[in-house]
Amino acid sequence: MSAQALLPILLLCALLLQAHGGWLFRKTKMSTEVKPCVKKVKPHLCKFNCENYQSCQANNICCSTFCGNVCMNIL
Q1: Which of 11, 21, 27, 67 could be bridged to 46 by S-S, CB 3.0 to 4.6 A?
Q2: By the 8 A CB rule, do 17 and 45 touch?
């Protein structure tokens, strides 16, 4: 393979690695266990049940309360 063909292929590979997250791809993994709520829970939140953090919308976490697991705002 000629050097003229090898250089664009190497450049393409380097660009694809950067788009993928770099040389060392690091995954951030959230905890799947449901922990007790830190804030005081209001009864109207009991209608927003969840099984894990993926069941809740953005900026919400799944935490354990007196009425089961609920989605609670983290802000």
Answers
A1: 67
A2: no
